[in-house]
Amino acid sequence: MAELGVPVEVFSIVPVKRSHSVCAQGGINAAKDLKGEGDSTWKHFDDTVFGGDFLANQPPVRDMTEAAPGIVDMLDRMGVMFNRTSEGLLDFRRFGGTLYSRTAFAGATTGQQLLYALDEQVRRFEAEGRVRKFEHWEMLSGVVDSNRACRGICAMDLRSMEVRTFPADAVIIATGGIGAIFGRSTNSVACTGSAQSALYQQGAYYANPEFVQVHPTAIPGEDKLRLMSESARGEGGRMWVPRDGKNWYFLEEWYPKYGNLVPRDIATRAIHKVVYELGLGVDGQPAVYLDLTHIDAKTLDRKLGGILETYEKFVGVDPRKEPMKVFPGMHYTMGGLWVDYKHRTNIAGLLAAGECEYQYHGANRLGANALLSCIYAGRVSGTAAVEHVQGLANGSDSVPSTVFEREARQQQELNDNLLKGQGTENPFAIWKEMGAGMTEHVTVIRNNDKLKKWDEKLVELLERSKRINLSDHSRWANQTLVFARELGNMLQLARAITLGALARNESRGAHYKPDFPERDDQNWLQTTKAYFAPDADEPRFVYEPVDTSLMPLRERKY
Amino acid sequence: MSADRTVEIKIKRQMTPDGPSRWETFRVTVRPAMNIVGVLMQIAENPVTVDGKATAPVSYDANCLEEVCGSCAMRINGRVRMACSSLVDHLQAPIRLEPMSRFPVVRDLQVDRSRLFEDLKRVKAWIPIDGTYDLGPGPRMAPREQEAAYPFSRCISCGSCLEVCPQYNDGTHFVGAAVVGQVRLFNSYPTGKMNAYERLEALMGPGGIHECGYAQNCVEICPKEIPLTQAIAEVGGQVMRHALFEFLKK
Questions:
Q1: Among the CATH numbers 3.30.70.260, 3.40.50.720, 3.10.20.30, 3.40.50.880, which is that of B6-111?
Q2: Is A264 a catalytic residue?
Q3: What confidence tier does B3 reach under pLDDT thresholds 50, 70, 90?
Q4: One domain, residues A281 and A189
Q5: Fewer Cβ atoms within 10 Å of its own Cβ: the N or the C terminal residue of chain A?
Q6: How many other C-beta atoms are found inside a 10 Å radius of the C-beta of residue A44?
Q7: Contact A438/A497 with Cβ under 8 angstroms?
Q8: Chain B residue with minimal CA distance to A70?
Q9: Which residues of A touch B32 (CB under 8 A)?
């Protein structure tokens, strides 16, 4: 957008450089076929749609996979330190859910490198006065006028706690994941989904909430689950548990074709089966081995340095010498704000890009497709936003100031009420309960009875969240107040996830119900669209057919 | 069952940027592999000091908790560390937490590191690409060069190297090792070389590389083990050659 000469304001809770994308490790997919394997963008498209169990609309996925090689080239030109071949070309490795070396990578810190490259370009625009950054600001809500058009946002300065509206002709939401709804996840602290939840409560559709990816290999931790990248398996890591005194490589035995590189949902359920059904967890704990010790330490350092360091630092064991202990952890939401192929939500002037929307991954995301989809979506939404602005008959400056004042007042009142609250509830305690329940009932295995009961509990937690007593009543950098606000939004989204899962009586991708173990295309080849406002105060659902015009359906078997 | 093990935590509190500071002491239950962020989370759930006094949760910056976002740098037992990768079991009790001293305090352990990002602008720490449209592949690069440059691309802008740098202060306006490391990174990228002179000139002015006193604290403290002194030496050489060249041109 800045490139097209449109003035841009960027709002971010943390300095942009500290956003969650830094945690993405493995790489970014692009079928450049530099290994002579006969890979093609069509095969990338096929793998993505198949991996997503046919729930993704096919045309945008095709367009994304076609754009992928150009996106990797762009990042390369931005100076990303991608690993190279001996000829100085980009190196590619294999990732889950494909048989091709399609993943460009910069050591095991690819997300960090890509985010930095993009942040540097924004900093350049900022230095030139073409972009204005508001870091340490949190978006609270959209400013929606009487014609249901988005005319700007309401945001809060996380230091002065000032609540202010910012007029805009188009708003793009790029607020990432929702991990905090599950308590501990592989996500960063800022990934609460609060912004998308606020917009959903203002009338934006939220699509496929029930599709939540659990990453098979996370390192369990007290404060968070740290990701052990799929690239560890891409570089030859093997998963096993001890059985009858021998190493049992259960993925290799069950899935001879893909072996350790089956997609994430399948690996996750396999580990659950090994641990909970067969009782073979390492030392009786919920853990299995991910073994790299057969690979020489030098190769490991070169290709996986960053992630091995993480394991060593946080667990205190050297993964070059001892197999790592891992267990599945909540990692990614395939669901998100509903958008059309140009990334426009159902509220005019409001667009969304990245993990906060639902467009590309269907029922399950393939590894190294997230970095691709967020950059591609950013590009599409940027162009569409400019298009929207240029076609606008009346800009946001024509909107009566009362519209902005009303929104700011409402959000300020929310703060005031929380600060005055004399209840007995602690927001951190409610959050813990929510996270534990979401992890137990709404991740790997879903059961209708339990989902129903859990939703009742969520309603109770929502009630309790209205009786919060903040332990901090100050009006400067009050993180407790911010958290309490986010908690309310997390609970509302948690209900959409839970009830979305309850409604979908089938198993597809990451959504698995033992009572309905098969995919049901007759009834459920549909996108879930959850809505909240204006005529409901709880999630309601409508469904829309999936566009499968490019590739016929087939059974998803690895 | 043995009783829960606890540890004493002393935290330097400061409610506002120019307000007074004071110390508060807490007692937290130690959990396996617990880090300092875990400590602060536990205090937030029940913010009561050892004297039974109710207080506000401690403000601090944290995001990824994997030591890649650079948010949670603070002084732990007098030494700057990342709170997420500082395990309680590896620290001498009582554990003292203070904000970094070279940056203005926002509140408690939160500091304002915006100067670091401003300095990245000063040295033009980016590749000035022609545009984001499809212009084909980037330049080729030898794996050896990529491997040598890669460590610098892992700088998380935590500011640890600035915290321990004797020259990083208002008197010198020295940009510090992290920023010099970025100049090293961009000047070694094949297309970044084309604008190397701009970055070098930025490092010749006030706060430039000549302010470095070679204390070498930066390289020792860096949580990502980035060879910062090597960057300073290399970029110092580049600056000198560039200055000489410019001088001879006159």
A1: 3.10.20.30
A2: yes
A3: low
A4: no
A5: C
A6: 28
A7: yes
A8: B134
A9: 222
Q: Which residue has the tokens 């997420």?
A: B84
Inter-chain contact A227–B66, Cβ cutoff 8 Å? yes
- What's the CA gap between A468 and A471, in Å, rounded? 9
ipTM tops the 0.95 cut: yes
Calpha distance A318→A321 (Å, rounded)? 6
Q: Is A350 inside any structural domain?
A: yes
Interface test with A, best of B5, B150, B179 (most A CBs within 10 A): B150
Q: Give per-residue pLDDT as tens, A6-38.
A: 999 999 999 999 999 999 988 999 999 999 999
Taking an 8 Å cut-off on Cβ atoms, the answer to whether A23 and B59 are in contact is no
Question: Which CATH number describes the domain made up of B114-249?
Answer: 1.10.1060.10
CA B58 to each of CA A339, A452, B47: distance values in angstroms, whole numbers, following the listed order: 39, 37, 8
CB of A320 within 8 A of CB of A311?
no
End-to-end Cα spacing for chain B: 80
Q: Which of A264, A269, A485, A504 is labelled catalytic? A: A264
Residue A455 and residue A360 in one domain: yes
Count of all residues that appear for chain B in the document: 250
Q: Is B124 on the interface with A (CB under 8 A)?
A: yes
**B121 contacts in chain A (CB < 8 Å):** 123, 126-127
Domain ranges of chain B: 6-111, 114-249
The two most distant CA atoms of chain B are separated, in Å, by: 80
- Evaluate the CA torsion angle A229, A65, A192, B40 in order and state its sign: positive
- pLDDT < 70 stretches in chain A: none
What CATH number does the domain containing A142 carry?
Answer: 3.50.50.60
CB atoms within 10 A of CB A515: 10
Phi, psi of A449 (to 5 degrees): -60, -45
Residue A284 sits in a domain whose CATH number is 3.90.700.10
Query: Does B38 contact chain A (CB < 8 Å)?
Result: yes
Residue A359 is given by DSSP the state: S
Domain that holds residue A309: 223-328
Partners of B14 in the β-ladder: B21
**A338/A358 Cα distance (integer angstroms):** 6
Inter-chain touch B132–A87, beta carbons under 8 Å: no
Find chain B residues with C-beta within 8 A of A73's C-beta.
Answer: 134-138
**Residues A340 and A460 occupy one common structural domain:** yes
Distances (CA, A) of A541 to A230, A400, A530, A533: 34, 33, 5, 12
How far apart, in whole angstroms, are the C-alpha atoms of residue A294 and residue B151? 26
Q: Residue B1 — very low, low, confident or very high, per pLDDT cuts 50/70/90?
A: very low
CB contact under 8 A, A79 and B127: yes
pLDDT tens digits, A104-133: 999 889 999 999 999 999 999 999 999 999
Question: Within 10 A of B95 (CB to CB), how many other CB atoms are there?
Answer: 19
Total domains, chain A: 2
Who among B106, B141, B150 is closest to A107 (CB)? B150
Residue in chain B nearest A72 by alpha carbon:
B137
Angle between helices A479-503 and A448-465 (to 10 degrees): 150
Residues A246 and A167 in one domain: no
- Amino acid code (one letter) for A448: N
Q: Hey, of B13, B68, B108, B179, which one would you mutate to test binding to chain A, going by the most A CBs within 10 A of its CB? A: B68
Q: How many CB atoms lie within 10 A of CB B166?
A: 11
With CB atoms and an 8 Å threshold, state whether B106 touches A477.
yes
